[in-house]
Design brief:
This protein is α/β, with parallel strands linked by helices. The chain contains 31 helices and 35 strands. Helix content is about 35%, strand content about 15%. Helix 6 links the parallel strand 6 and strand 7. The chain is globular, with a radius of gyration of 36 Å.
Length: about 950
């Protein structure tokens, strides 16, 4: 206990409450080792008498000691050495106490009073609100004239709020296009349909100050297609009070600090967001703008109270604050355009909900999100844990009681327990009784299997060992009355799920008949709500979300950032938004989160209550197989990431996989431009290796653009077997169908973001004709029954098979369009364009340039290995001096000349595409334009 010096005496003498310990037996207190204890407040003790006792004690060399139980303790005279020794002993005892306090099996008893309990200020939970939960259906006939896409105008491509808007749209799977404000408007219509359902301005001033031409054009589009506008008022250094908004009967006041937000329960915009509550406390930021309308077209959507002395003055204590409008709706009665203006950005969590509702309302339901939410809470390692951290009987009872309370808010809810049977009864006697109580109530939970040993699956030597471990766990389950038919399993530490370990999937199928798993590792993204699921070998893998709790998160006092940080995540923060943005959420928590301070019970019960307070979401739960089936009814975009770019993935990857098994460059096509010849020339290089042939598509794997992609990463990597001298090898893949595949660039970049790209371009008219002849040579009935002109001139009302052939002839030749898609993900420095005519006439020079681009050393001398064959009409590989090896008879065919009318049609068709290609080549720094491209533009 700290000592009190002379200069502290006033504070002590004026203290309130406590017990006085005196060495004066005459004080009338109880004797305690020569020190009388006066029970009661120091205030009742005579001040003069206390001062007299204090001074007498100091003169004798004594100490006055303060403690929570003794406001002023007068001790017997002591020496400095005794004092120091006492302090050392006290420090040692404190260290021992806190070690015991944190780690002993009895720590939870000591901490019982510190356990947080769910405490959400919410009228609806207390049954005192009379405001109905209105969830408006925004659908109207106007939705048929617009596409479900958002056009976002930002100040710059790096604007903070612009990025937040884009992220919010991505989280909710909404299509959008970003344009920098101030430039010309993009094309707004497609035939008789609007391309965008809502227009969003990151900075409202960019809309208010648009040039007259663009403003009139945009307003005309909004009126004609009933498209609404959303604007965010940007913060400014200039403070405005009652300033007129340009062009609108609306006054604004800015740079305010606000508190206690509420919503207009009568607003037709509210759908996801529920009114009737108050978000108590200060709102984030000190640069809020509020609105004062001067026309009947305006209606407040959200209010808040003034929390600032800078505007409006101070309110008298107990007086009623005038609510200030922070979000306002324009019904369009002023100029026939509906708008919603936000007085701040998206830092405030409630604005994120209102923004989603605004998109739904202004798009007439085209951009509405589904309000049904499915939840699953997995408790991993229910029997795995160090002594002192496991569950006792009262913890199990608390879990059962919390489960019942949650089930009242989330129909069908049950905790899903994952078990590794080997660790059953490995705790203290009290904790072992907790294990028994779990099994006594096993029918009240759902169950899923871990590994018996809790060992990572990729560490097993073979599949037999892996299955043997699983069978041990299955036997344990049957012996202890645990259901084994959930068809759901989770791998310890996510090992083997992604990156995929094939033996795990085989063993799961064989032992447990697994149909569903889950993982945090695919894609390994932050924030977690961006994760998506995938299907591998008919096992549905759901994305696991994080709830902010980990194995070591046991006590609220040791939570990173403290309870305030956890509550922030629950009340509008990361955890809350995860449920809002994901139709299905699978949360993982650990057994240790349910003992000790029982943080998991606090977290899940609190966030569910908060969701019920502020949203109209319909929460429910179901077994994992049901959740997975519903999840994969949604269009899920599978995207394999490169495990080599993630340290975490490398640690849980199968030991028989290597980062050297992925290609370093791709030949992406397009078809009928000479890609097979280039493949042959590359294969001649001693330091370049291609994939092994596919039994279905020969030298092409065709992984990124078709059904093969769903066979998984492991299937793809098996085409690139490890060789001893891997450092000298440049692995590559050639699939000519990649060039114009819509999803291919994004998928390729996710896996091979550092790879280089090689493409070959020839006259698009010539390429189209060559493809037509190729299909004829392979007996295609449509090509045999229709002329080339009939094919390329087919209308959209023609038979589908004819239209399909037309598209395969024409679409790949839109070179600039497809290259732009690739350049969305790859840099220009990663792209090498080969002139196909030059590859045919002078392949040696082309291959020398390609080697420089790939930075391959030493350089391979192709002049000694390629020779022109006059019979074939192209260069062939030199073998044994005078002999050559040429491509098959199907290559280099001579066709009948193209019809003149077909040639002219194609020249007109490709004019805009060829012009765009010239501009693109110049932007990429190409010094020369191919002769065929010059000729095409000249002829036109």
């Amino acid at each position: 206990m700290p000592s009190v010096r002379n200069n502290d005496k006033t504070a002590l003498l004026n203290g309130s409450g406590g017990t006085l310990i005196s060495n004066n037996p005459a004080s009338g207190g109880k004797q305690n080792g020569g020190c009388s204890i006066v029970v009661g407040s120091i205030r009742r003790y005579s001040k003069q008498r206390l001062q007299h006792t204090y001074y007498q004690h100091l003169r004798s060399g004594g100490l006055i000691v303060a403690s929570p139980y003794c406001k002023c303790c007068l001790l017997k005279p002591v020496t400095v050495k005794r004092c120091v020794a006492g302090l050392l002993i006290l420090s040692l005892l404190s260290i021992l106490y806190y070690t015991h306090y944190l780690n002993s099996p009895f720590s939870s008893l000591i901490r019982r009073d510190s356990r947080p309990e769910p405490s959400i200020r919410c009228a609806v939970l207390n049954g005192v609100t009379h405001i109905p939960a209105a969830s408006h259906d925004h659908r109207s006939a106007a939705r048929l004239r617009i596409d479900p896409k958002v056009l976002v105008f930002v100040e710059t491509t790096y604007s903070r709020l612009g990025k937040e808007i884009a992220e919010l749209l991505v989280h909710n799977r909404m299509k959008y296009k970003v344009e920098v404000a101030g430039k010309s408007l993009p094309v707004l219509t497609n035939l008789d349909k609007g391309k965008y359902g809502v227009i969003v301005f990151e900075n409202l001033n960019k809309y208010l100050n648009m040039d007259k031409w663009n403003r009139e054009l945009l307003d005309k589009y909004c009126r004609e297609y009933s498209v609404g506008i959303v604007g965010f008022v940007a913060p400014t250094e200039e403070t405005l009070v009652g300033a007129q908004m340009k062009g609108f009967p609306l006054l604004i006041h800015n740079n305010l600090r606000l508190k206690d937000a509420a919503l207009n329960a009568g607003s037709p915009i509210l759908r996801l967001t529920r009114a009737g509550e108050i978000a108590w406390g200060p709102l984030p930021g000190s640069d809020w703008t509020v609105f004062s309308p001067n026309h009947s077209t305006y209606e407040s959507l959200a209010w808040a109270n003034n929390n600032s002395q800078d505007w409006g003055g101070e309110s008298e204590e107990g007086s009623v604050h005038t609510p200030l409008t922070t979000v306002i709706q324009d019904h369009g009665r002023f100029d026939n355009i509906q708008r919603v203006f936000f007085g701040s950005g998206l830092k405030f969590w409630l604005h994120r909900l209102l923004f989603l509702d605004t998109l739904s309302y202004l798009s007439h339901g085209q951009l509405s999100i589904n309000l049904n939410r499915l939840l699953l809470v997995d408790i991993d390692d229910i029997f795995v844990g160090e002594q002192g951290t496991r569950l006792r009987k009262e913890d199990v009872q608390a879990m059962l009681e919390a489960q019942e309370r949650i089930r009242e808010m989330v129909p069908g809810f049950k905790f899903n327990l994952g078990f590794s049977g080997k660790y059953f009864h490995h705790g203290t006697p009290e904790e072992n009784r907790g294990d028994d109580m779990i099994l006594e109530n096993s029918h009240k939970f759902m169950w899923f299997s871990h590994m018996w040993n809790h060992l990572q699956p990729h560490l097993y030597e073979n599949q037999s060992q892996l299955e043997a471990d699983m069978y041990l766990n299955k036997a344990f389950a049957k012996d202890h009355g645990i259901r084994v038919d959930s068809q759901y399993s989770v791998a310890p530490h996510h090992s083997g799920v992604y990156p995929v370990h094939e033996m795990l999937y085989s063993a799961w199928k064989r032992v447990w008949n697994v149909k569903v798993s889950s993982t945090e590792e695919y894609p390994h993204l932050r924030p977690a709500r961006l994760r998506r699921g995938f299907i591998h070998r008919n096992i549905m893998v759901l994305p696991r979300q994080t709830c902010g709790l980990f194995t070591h998160t046991m006590f609220i006092e040791r939570y990173p950032g403290g309870r305030e940080k956890l509550d922030e995540s629950i009340q509008g923060g990361e955890l809350f938004q995860t449920v809002v943005y994901n139709p299905i959420s699978v949360f993982m928590s650990h057994m240790s989160n349910y003992g000790n301070d029982r943080l998991a019970l606090y977290t899940f019960e609190s966030v569910i209550k908060f969701l019920r307070c502020w949203t109209n979401l319909k929460l429910s739960s179901a077994p994992p197989v049901v959740l997975a089936e519903k999840y994969f009814q949604i269009n899920i975009l599978l995207m394999f990431q490169n495990p080599c770019h993630d340290v975490r993935h490398i640690r849980i990857w199968s030991h028989n996989k290597s980062c050297e098994q992925l290609p370093r460059f791709l030949v992406i096509g397009p078809q009928k431009t000479g890609t097979t010849a280039l493949y042959a020339f590359l294969s001649m290089h001693p330091n370049i290796s291609s994939n092994i042939p596919s039994p279905e598509t020969f030298e092409e794997i065709q992984f990124f653009n078709g059904r093969n992609y769903y066979r998984g990463l492991s299937w793809y990597m098996d085409f690139f077997p490890l060789v001893k001298n891997t450092t000298a090898q440049f692995l590559f893949e050639k699939s000519a169908t990649y060039f114009d595949g819509e999803l291919v660039p994004k998928r390729a970049h996710a896996l091979l973001q550092h790879a280089k790209l090689v493409t070959i371009l020839i006259s698009p008219s010539k390429r189209a004709y060559s493809w037509y002849q190729h299909t004829r040579a392979h007996g295609d009935p449509i090509a045999l029954n229709y002329s080339f002109y009939d094919v390329i001139s087919a209308s959209d009302t023609a038979p589908k098979v004819l239209r399909d052939l037309r598209n395969r002839c024409l679409n790949p030749g839109k070179y600039a369009q497809h290259l732009e898609r690739w350049l969305t993900y790859y840099t220009p420095q990663q792209l090498h364009i080969i002139d196909g005519d030059q590859l045919r006439s002078n392949p040696i020079e082309v291959m020398d340039q390609l080697q420089k681009f790939l930075k391959i050393t030493p350089v391979f001398n192709y002049s000694n290995h390629l020779r022109y064959d006059p019979k074939k009409g192209f260069f062939c590989q030199v073998l044994n001096g005078d002999h050559t090896k040429c491509l098959g008879k199907g290559k280099g065919r001579l066709y009948q000349p193209m019809e003149e009318k077909a040639y002219k049609l194609l020249q007109r068709y490709y004019l805009s595409h060829n012009t765009a290609l010239v501009k693109l080549l110049r932007r990429l720094g190409q010094r020369t334009v191919p002769q065929w491209l010059k000729d095409a533009l000249t002829d036109t």
